[in-house]
Amino acid sequence: xxxxxxxxxxxxxxxxxxxxxxxxxxxxxxxxxxxxxxxxxxxxxxxxxxxxxxxxxxxxxxxxxxxxxxxxxxxxxxxxxxxxxxxxxxxxxxxxxxxxxxxxxxxxxxxxxxxxx
Length: 117
Prior knowledge:
Order of helices and strands: EEEEEEEEHEEE
Structural class: mainly beta
Radius of gyration: 14 Å
Number of domains: 1
Number of helices: 1
Number of strands: 11
Shape: globular
């Protein structure tokens, strides 16, 4: 699947799954910038609870594992303010990860990841 690496020519910012601070407020880890292919399209998927839903966007990557309830933003880390970097919910174009899929190549050396937003 190395040939797919050429397809990941867009930048996105990823925040992992948040944790609660014990008072109902979510805390996010440090965001990272990754290479992706981002497609704004509707696609039927099954979420973690087994419910069928339709995506707003589908994102592909081969460099980063993802978590449900994490966030993705199409753009560069430098596009975001300090406040936005600490809370993706303050970024109007950052979207919640609703489901993900991870598949190895035939030698299990490279992994292909797909995320539904």
